[in-house]
Write a structure and sequence with these properties.
Homodimer. Binds to stalled ribosomes, contacting rRNA. With 787 residues, this protein is α/β, with parallel strands linked by helices. The chain has 5 domains: 142 residues, MutS, DNA mismatch repair protein, Chain A, domain 3 (Orthogonal Bundle); 213 residues, 3-Layer(aba) Sandwich (Rossmann fold); 84 residues; 62 residues, no CATH class; 78 residues, 2-Layer Sandwich (Ribosomal Protein S8, Chain: A, domain 1), CATH 3.30.1370.110. 52% of the residues lie in helices and 16% in strands. The protein contains 23 helices and 24 strands. The strands form 5 sheets. A 7-stranded mixed beta sheet has the order 1-11-12-13-9-14-15, with helices on both faces. Strands 19-18-17-16-20 form a 5-stranded antiparallel beta sheet, with no helix packed on it. Strands 2-3-5-4 form a 4-stranded antiparallel beta sheet. Strand 16 and strand 17 form a beta hairpin. The two termini are 92 Å apart.
């Protein structure tokens, strides 16, 4: 139910219906459009929406539906029901074409069984009586005329008529030629008068030929005469024509009688054609406004995403403009949205968009909104829009508004959608504001849902402090002083009255005088709203930049993890290969030793022989166990710099130079660090380095340098674990060019200190080691200085 009756018209629903009617092919389709009304049964709404969506899918993605002929056959069926009545040839032809359309549609969906379930339900259990079409086609031809072969008698009559016409024509031509030769005729040829073929004879010669005069010319000089000899033949033809008419009527009555038992089926066919035309028109309109089917919910709520006013959308598209989309939620927690903002900022359009789309959904129409939107069902829709003053009822504008408010309060509930434009307007703001606030409070207590537009500050404050009511504002660019037509939920909007007046050019002295006349509190509220708008815009921009950076960071982390996994996998492969090579070398060495021992035994440990065998053994072991690294000689010694990318010639691994120490290079491969001779690497161009590897190194180095501290505490640790951790710290400190490393190992009995220092002495990069000052820990701390 919609209250008042003109509410749908004010929301623009009548214009929607007119646009859909223009898409109909038949009168019965247009009649169905006229009857469109919002429904509140969930299942019925869902059925109509799915039908329209499926027909839209057919129009966009499938072959055209064969609905070329749609005739209103309901009246014809009513005519058939009357005993003794009959349909004309043209009416039978319309029935035939309509039924052929019905059968073609049914066949179309049978070929796509199960693809369009909602539309298939339209003709479910509908019988296909093709005998009706067959009977009509036996009588009516493809041009809508009765076939001469419709009955044997009719065929005989047609034959007789043809024969009589030939005989009459032949005799008439002969008489006309004789009259012409005698000079009795006037200018012209044979002509028809009163349905009879006549000869034009000069008036003075009319007695020279026996016959019947049917007419004369305006001057009286020419008479039109039917010769006596042809008169009998023409009478015979007329009698045959009467016979033909009587036989046709007999055949039509007989055919009508044959159709009479099928009247209920014919009415069902008429209903199917009407619905198909109706749904087709709705689907075409949905395509026009780029409408979709949202998720339907059986609760009084809505969640609109990317919603647009359909009429505004069509108008803007003609002008090459776009409509700013609307996003809004109305539910149990956020029941009533109070929209404020400047004049011409889009408040009313926002409210009308919400109301119109809700009516469209409950009328089974798709809406121009994102399909992820969710639309509920309201049992009552109340709207107070525009000026409803009435001279007849002696109601002023404000009185009309109050009458509606009374009705809203008395009849609204949890399933009511209330739409009020310019709430409280039309009277003294000093009294209109409090009355509007009281009405709003009453509607909120009744759990009504709705959208209300206002300029009143007390309503904004009330919404801010009341559960179930939410402030919203139409955004306004206070720099260029133009509305942005964007609805923002969560804060009220300023009217920007003084700012707009200043832009329009109202004199400054007038504006200053006006500012002095308004209350201090109102000034504060307006200034606060303007400042909030500015700050909100800045926060929005900052949040968008943060989200952008967060996205970039997530991408970098993902690439970092991917590269780490790649390097870890390569590391495992290289270690496995090295172990296999070591095992092979060890097997060869063991075999060589065994062979040497065997030969010594065979020579009875002869000194010379033994010396020679030991020499050979040493040579072979040196060759196998101390295998020199593969060196590629280059004619020109390459110059390397820290940060250069290089490729290790032996393995093809790409790494970055972290430090240069004479002929040695300290390379970084992900988390791994390695010391390699200069002659084992070659420079590689940056573009050959995988992008992920470059990002990984840039990120890792920056993070490592920023987070690394050249100090390690190993107190209480076992010797092996302490040395392992110290080795990692030592490598990082050397790689990052730190001059020293501080190791806190504690005093105890000095065993851990001794083991650590003995271990560090094997590093050639270690220049010296010293105890900490006695006041700061003494020999419980070791400082390691690098050369």
């Amino acid at each position: 139910m919609i209250y008042p009756e003109n509410a749908a018209e004010k929301l623009g629903f009548n214009e929607i219906k007119s646009l859909i009617k223009a898409r109909c092919l038949s009168v019965m389709g247009k009649d169905m459009v006229d009857k469109i009304q919002p429904m509140h049964q969930f299942g019925q709404i869902d059925k109509f929406l799915r039908q329209t969506k499926e027909f839209k899918d057919i129009l966009v993605n499938d072959a055209p539906l064969p609905i070329d002929h749609l005739y209103p056959i309901k009246n014809l069926v009513e005519k058939i029901r009357v005993e003794g009545s009959f349909l004309s040839e043209e009416e039978f032809f319309q029935v035939s074409l309509s039924l052929k359309t019905v059968f073609a549609v049914i066949h179309y969906f049978q070929e796509r069984n199960g693809q369009y379930e909602a539309l298939e339900a339209l003709f479910e259990h509908l019988p296909v009586e093709k005998s009706i079409v067959k009977n009509i086609d036996n009588v009516i031809d493809q041009h809508g005329k009765m076939k001469p072969s419709a009955s044997p008698k009719l065929h005989e009559i047609y034959t007789s008529i043809s024969r009589a016409e030939r005989e009459a024509r032949k005799r008439m031509d002969s008489l006309f030629k004789n009259a012409q030769d005698a000079g009795w005729t006037a200018d012209g040829s044979l002509t028809i008068r009163d349905g009879r073929l006549c000869i034009p004879i000069l008036a003075e010669n009319k007695r020279k030929i026996k016959g019947f005069i049917h007419d004369e010319s305006s001057t009286g000089q020419t008479v039109y005469l039917e010769p006596e000899e042809v008169f009998q033949l023409n009478n015979q033809l007329r009698d045959l024509e009467f016979d033909k008419r009587r036989e046709k009527i007999r055949i039509l009555i007989e055919l009508t009688t044959e159709l009479r038992p099928y009247t209920s089926v014919l009415l069902s066919y008429h209903g199917l054609l009407s619905k198909l035309d109706f749904v087709r028109a709705k689907a075409l309109f949905a395509i026009d406004i780029e409408a979709e089917m949202p998720e339907l919910d059986n609760t009084p709520s809505m969640s609109l995403r990317n919603a647009r006013h359909p009429l505004l959308f069509l108008n803007h598209r003609k002008e090459g403009l776009t409509v700013v989309p609307l996003y809004v939620n109305i539910n149990e927690k956020q029941r009533i949205v109070v929209v404020s903002g400047p004049n011409a900022g889009g408040k009313s359009v926002c409210m009308k968009t919400i109301g119109l789309l809700q009516i469209m959904i409950q009328s089974g129409l798709l809406i121009p909104a994102d399909p992820t939107s969710k639309m509920g069902v309201f049992k009552l829709i109340f709207a107070d829009i525009g000026d409803d003053q009435s001279i007849e009822s002696d109601l002023s504008t404000y009185s009309a508004h109050l009458s509606k408010m009374r009705y809203f309060i008395e009849n609204s509930g949890g399933k009511t959608l209330v739409l009020i434009d310019e709430f409280g307007a039309g009277t003294d703001p000093q009294f209109g504001g409090p009355i509007a606030e009281a009405v709003l409070e009453s509607l909120n207590k009744k759990k009504a849902r709705g959208v209300i537009t206002t300029h009143y500050s007390n309503l904004k404050l009330f919404a801010n402090s009341t559960e179930g009511i939410e402030n919203a504002s139409m955004l306004f660019d206070n720099v260029v002083m133009k509305p942005r037509y964007i609805l923002e939920i969560g804060k009220p909007g300023s009217s920007y009255a003084f700012e707009i007046a200043h832009k329009i050019g109202l004199p400054d002295d007038v504006l200053n005088n006006a500012k002095q006349k308004i209350g201090v509190q109102q000034k504060k509220v307006d200034h606060l709203l303007v400042d909030l708008e500015r700050e909100k815009k800045e926060v929005f921009e900052a949040r968008r930049n943060f989200q952008k950076r967060e996205s970039q960071l997530a991408k970098l982390v993902e690439e970092n993890e991917s590269m780490k996994a790649y390097l870890e996998e390569n590391k495992k492969t290289l270690l496995k290969q090295a172990k296999l090579e070591a095992q092979e070398v060890l097997r060869n060495a063991n075999k060589l030793v065994e062979n040497t021992i065997s030969e010594i035994k065979e020579s009875n440990a002869d000194k010379d022989k033994t010396r020679e065998l030991r020499k050979v053994l040493k040579t072979e072991l040196d060759k196998n166990l101390v295998k020199p690294a593969k060196v590629v000689k280059t004619e020109k010694k390459e110059e390397f710099q820290i940060g250069d990318w290089v490729k290790i010639i032996d393995t093809g691994t790409i790494a970055q130079i972290m430090e240069i120490a004479k002929d040695n290079l300290i390379l970084a491969m992900g988390d791994l660090r390695s010391v390699v001779k200069r002659n084992r690497v070659e420079k590689t161009v940056r573009k050959d380095v995988p992008k992920a590897l470059r990002k990984l190194h840039g990120t890792d180095m920056t993070e490592s340098i920023a987070s690394f501290s050249p100090e390690i505490d190993v107190r209480g640790m076992r010797t092996e674990a302490a040395i392992s951790d110290i080795e990692k710290y030592l490598d990082k400190a050397i790689m990052m060019s730190f001059p020293s490393l501080k190791i806190i190992h504690g005093k105890g009995n000095g065993i851990l200190r001794k083991m650590i220092r003995d271990y560090l002495r094997k590093y050639k990069e270690v220049d010296r080691m010293e105890d900490e000052h006695a006041d700061r820990g003494g020999d419980g701390i070791t400082y390691v200085y690098f050369s």
